[in-house]
Amino acid sequence: MKTEEMVCVMCPLGCRLTVTIEDNGEIIVSGNKCPRGIEYGKQEVTEPLRILTSSVLVNNGELPLVSVKTNKPVPRRLIGEIMEILKKTVVEAPVKSGDIILEDVLGTGADIVATRNVERIKTA
Questions:
Q1: Does a structural domain hold residue 42?
Q2: CATH of the domain at 81
Q3: Residue 13: how many CB atoms within 10 A of its CB?
Q4: For residue 123, what pLDDT is reported?
Q5: Cα dist. 114→30, 51, 63, 71, 78 in Å?
Q6: Tell me, what's the pLDDT at 12?
Q7: How far apart are CA 105 and CA 57, in angstroms?
Q8: Is 104 found in the same domain as 58?
Q9: Are residues 60 and 108 in the same domain?
Q10: What is the Cα–Cα distance from 113 to 99, expressed in whole angstroms?
């Protein structure tokens, strides 16, 4: 049997959860005040997911970087690999908020999307 304590972030209540993984694999969550806490606790001990925010380089942009994020949570264990991909990613200006920078990153089903506009440098 293994027990973990955590704070649920699925709603503003911030319940203190106790999640127990029984020897038979059953997961028991207690301390939640809403049903979302049960799912959050189970997810955190089996395959934690996170929204990833970062930035990528922009060629010929008024700004050198554009902020990006995943459009859905990705497995926490893949964040380092995704960051390595983002370090090597360069896009060409203009970039519009909502543009897909990378599709289905590492087969997660999540896209990397721009979260702001970066206009192209105006030449004289």
A1: yes
A2: 3.10.530.10
A3: 14
A4: 76
A5: 38, 14, 13, 10, 20
A6: 94
A7: 17
A8: yes
A9: yes
A10: 5
**123 Cβ contact partners less than 8 Å away, ≥ 6 residues apart:** none
Token representation of residue 58: 């922009």
Give me the domain span that covers residue 12.
2-46
Q: How many domains does the chain have?
A: 2
Residues 15 and 32 in one domain: yes
pLDDT averages per 10-residue partition of the chain, 124 residues: 95 96 96 95 96 98 98 98 98 98 98 98 80
- How long a stretch of residues is the chain? 124
* pLDDT reported for residue 108: 98
41/67 same-domain check = no
Q: How far apart are CA 8 and CA 114, in angstroms?
A: 28
Q: pTM score, two decimals? A: 0.86
Q: Which two tokens stand for residue 26?
A: 């059953």
Which among 106, 100, 110 is positioned nearest to 78, based on CA atoms?
106
Q: Domain check: are 29 and 67 in the same one? A: no
